[in-house]
């Protein structure tokens, strides 16, 4: 980062944006109009940065590391017991071998082949099938190829893929095989005939096109376009869904770059960019090639993580430019191309507006950005354009167009800047469940202590799969048409790169459908929201919640105390105006001193029970301390009213520390489990009240209750179980499958 900041500050001194910001195109035109000497220096600095970011790469060491891991995997895999746990452990080591091999293709081929073998043994047939193909692609030794092809045929049989099954068997029949292999081929051929005769014609039910429940209207004023209900919409209904073509993983998370899958049993890394980009399947890798071919060299330099929103802006440009090109190929100058792009973005007449047009028309506030902000985004765009020019063949696609490559360079820089500006006001971040306690380069599905069989967790393990995290920055131009309201009308479920938007309450016909760009009115103070909305989105909120005489009442309902002074003991809500920043949630900020004062007697509150509670949490391993801890939790009711945020925070600490004990094999007393279930249920009620009963926070906390029920450690009833099962709808599909398996394996039986 320092390197980038240094170069940018040197470049900043070379450029002048005196005439202010007209549009992105003019900004880059002015850059190109700089005196030749300055332009050259600017370019040199960019080129130097790109060179400096290159890292030495030693293929031999990669091969050595890969071989070591593969051999370790072999030792584990050859273990005679062939227990599921051992096989998964071998898969993990082979995955390490696949990653470490990078471009050492001989080793990579062997690593893929061995992982395929272990995955097949475990029952991940789709992934095993892919790994066989990967091994062959990487040049798996010819004399051993029949083994891999046999495995492909076997997996194709398990996957009921008749076409592939036939193809691999035909291939095997052409090879000279020994008796053992011949026997296997014969056996598989019988399976093929059986499969063919059994395979039912699957009837594809045409799904009825859903009615459109929403429409977009335009206000000539600052609130611009907005979404309204076209008809009355009841609570809980899916209003609209959207699938994003462009997203980037946050914090370099290893999720599939094509479909955003987080659960992968056989991640396939790009072998050229130092294990930074992975896919969940060959299909995803193939689909993403159109983008990755232009990003790979940047990942190799670890450049993109430095650029924040500009990385997503680059993805928009890489994705949408080929779609725009047919409309622009005839333009003879950069000015003409830019005018055509502006026209394209204004064209909203068609019945279904293509995604790239929706994106082109997103609002931007670059005009209102500070000079420093503008220069920063401009330099990022310039850097990316230079990178594309110097290290990829991106600009080749314009060879046949009427304008020159130099014209296209100006346009591409301007488009990256424009997209970055738009994303600042329209970009979304998606959240997902993620496994607890894993490093970014570890994969949950390969953790042998978690799984019984493919996608079936072990008893008591659900809570280890559920931590809610932000995972992608994502472009959703249709969702972006919703204006902001501090009380949103929708709850958004992120499912990979798709989103589903449910109505949070009943909506009348014509009512505006709001999204909330910040924390909502139950989770933040008006002042905090106003600041963010003004700074980033450049408007002042005047929604119903903000206009109320007491706009913070809903949030402060989670902050009501009883005064600890014996002669007062009144219930009070802290006076927000008198509090330093962050003091309301003093327990979340270690550097903030608690300065809560009773508004009735004006006495400062000391909360002596707070540290005592945390001490008990720390020593939760001890039975007697756990007794005191449950007692201390009950005592919190004396000081913290209803669903006080602090009480929920402390409940979280208590639950987590008890589960740490359960996870290491400690058996709690029956009464402890009962108390634990009581704390979790109370916690869930509080979370439902503040975040919603279908929120990711709720689903995360729910896993503890599921585990206790599965472990038969707490009573439940059919109604509760059905209610919990109903929550599956709000999970992303990859997690829904795992949760459903868990429900069927361990919970459903308890309904009977
Ligand atoms: C994500 S866009 C929403 C769609 C936008 N109205 C449009 O026409 O493209 C966000 C921008 O819309 C405007 N906006 C959103 N909510 C608003 C509100 N409640 N009041 C005024 N302007 C709003 C602001 O300019 C904001 O930066």
Automatic annotation (TrEMBL):
<dbReference type="GO" id="GO:0008276">
    <property type="term" value="F:protein methyltransferase activity"/>
</dbReference>
<keyword id="KW-0479">Metal-binding</keyword>
<protein>
    <submittedName>
        <fullName>SET and MYND domain-containing protein 4</fullName>
    </submittedName>
</protein>
<keyword id="KW-0808">Transferase</keyword>
<dbReference type="GO" id="GO:0008170">
    <property type="term" value="F:N-methyltransferase activity"/>
</dbReference>
<dbReference type="GO" id="GO:0008757">
    <property type="term" value="F:S-adenosylmethionine-dependent methyltransferase activity"/>
</dbReference>
<keyword id="KW-0949">S-adenosyl-L-methionine</keyword>
<feature type="domain" description="SET">
    <location>
        <begin position="190"/>
        <end position="518"/>
    </location>
</feature>
<dbReference type="InterPro" id="IPR046341">
    <property type="entry name" value="SET_dom_sf"/>
</dbReference>
<dbReference type="InterPro" id="IPR002893">
    <property type="entry name" value="Znf_MYND"/>
</dbReference>
<dbReference type="GO" id="GO:0005737">
    <property type="term" value="C:cytoplasm"/>
</dbReference>
<dbReference type="InterPro" id="IPR001214">
    <property type="entry name" value="SET_dom"/>
</dbReference>
<keyword id="KW-0863">Zinc-finger</keyword>
<dbReference type="GO" id="GO:0008270">
    <property type="term" value="F:zinc ion binding"/>
</dbReference>
<dbReference type="Pfam" id="PF01753">
    <property type="entry name" value="zf-MYND"/>
</dbReference>
<dbReference type="GO" id="GO:0032259">
    <property type="term" value="P:methylation"/>
</dbReference>
<keyword id="KW-0862">Zinc</keyword>
<dbReference type="GO" id="GO:0005634">
    <property type="term" value="C:nucleus"/>
</dbReference>
<keyword id="KW-0489">Methyltransferase</keyword>
<dbReference type="GO" id="GO:0042826">
    <property type="term" value="F:histone deacetylase binding"/>
</dbReference>
<dbReference type="InterPro" id="IPR011990">
    <property type="entry name" value="TPR-like_helical_dom_sf"/>
</dbReference>
<dbReference type="InterPro" id="IPR052097">
    <property type="entry name" value="SET-MYND_domain_protein"/>
</dbReference>
